[in-house]
Predict the 3D structure of the following.
Amino acid sequence: MIAVGITVALKEILASFGLSGGLLSVVTYAILASATFGLLSVLALFLVWWERKIAGHMQQRFGPMRNGWHGWYQTLVDGLKLLQKEDVRVATRDKVVFFWAPVMCFIAAFAAYIVIPFGDGLIVADLNIGILYIMAITTFTVISLLMAGWGSNNKYALLGGMRSAAQVVSYEVPMVASILVVVLYAGSLSTVDIVNSQAGNFLNWNIFRVPYGPLAFLTYLVAAIAEANRTPFDLAEAEQELVAGFNIEYSGMKFAMFFLAEFINLFTVSAIAVILFFGGWHGFEFIPSFVWFFLKTFAVVFLLIMIRWTYPRMRVDQLMEFAWKFLVPLTFLNIIIAAIFKHFGWYWEL
Amino acid sequence: MLEYIKGFFELVKGLGITGKHLTKHAVTLQYPEEKDVMPERSRGVVVLLSDKEDGSLNCTSCLLCMKACPTAAIIIDAPRGEDKKKVLKKFELDFSLCCYCGLCEEACNFSALKLTGKYEYSTGNKDDLIWDVHKLQDVGRDVDYVDKRKKKVKKVAPKPTVSEATDEIKPTQSADKIETKPVEIKTDKIKTDKIETPQDKDEKPKTEGEA
Ligand code: SF4
Ligand code: SF4
């Protein structure tokens, strides 16, 4: 294992230029943050296009076709259009809250990437509480949605914000519970340790640890869709009932920030799924580790897109019922099963 | 619990269905580049037909179409010239009035008017929807049609049954043959044939559609 983290390598390079102490750290992380920001912006643009293409073909349409080959720079053009748009602000808004909501949403979406390993050593910081940190930071998204709903001073926006708060509070529980199964086996909260616990044979991946592995993956997936506010759990937006939900009063770049954050969240939950259940960057050696990571993540993203364009939206009460009456007991039961298997050593380590 | 498990498999089935559609080819057309092939007898833009040989208008200014038109979309001005023959001075068709009923085509006895499959004529100016005789003729130049006028000639020709039979099987070929046949008899027999025209009308569009 070439355990040279990109952060360490970068620090060494910068140190050779004579930087040291606090300045060295600041410059290192500034560079890494910009790189991640660039990568994720491109990714988000790509994901929007990809989702539209898949949605189109699933309905036997083409999706975007006009700009470039099969409309590949359509989202770029859309983004430029949003940049030029007038920033409409309602007079009755709560000025501070209204302004900071999209910023917070954006930051929350990006901050999770500090602990996501894109490949072997391609991680900004290997926190020993990695997965817990992700759980904590992604919850900021819901606060930002609530802020957007409150700040807009609009009944639909407020309803959307409240719904998303209720939804995320409910689904946080099964999500943490299904992650706990993995943590139980990895013996660590660090994302790198979790990935390394699945090294070697691909049968070591948590998804193959029957019966609790696949079950944990499914419950995680359901909770993740709810966290990412996507259909069938997109009650916060619910175009047909709430017009556009929390982002109804937003336009121009502020709307674009919400929109991009949504797609970055989509990638985040897929990346976490890969880290937790599909062995992260591990795969056959002859293909670079980050390629494996992206391949697997895109596969999960594809699954999520398929789910989004297949199922209709659930009702609020159904959503709550499903979370508390079914998912929470199931995930708790799953933890107990996993603990029993772990205790008696009924699992393989190839 | 059991229903949840059942439900899960139903969900997977749903994914399978959308996945199947994902692999199918799109049914939509990329409109300005790809155009749908309109059916032969579709009722779109009305055009004036020209003679297949000399390219002159088939219209005899009989005003039948103008009278048949329920929306008064056609306005014809054809005063008699010095030789007592009608001269077509004005033939205007207002597509903002036209309802594409096809009555004008049915009324015309001289294969001078036809509803075609053409449809791209939208404009930002309402006045542009009034087409004059030149535009109507130009748009109709490439339109293929079965000439009613000369078919009547064929009916009085020596072997009517045989020619009619071939007509129905190979409409395009027979149409060519008919044109080569002598034209002189035409004027004599038109009036006698007039009673049979309703039948003709029923037959001819069919063969046209098959072609
Ligand atoms: S199609 Fe009907 S409405 Fe249009 S010009 Fe002919 S008769 Fe008039
Ligand atoms: S009915 Fe036919 S021949 Fe008579 S005026 Fe109309 S287009 Fe011309």
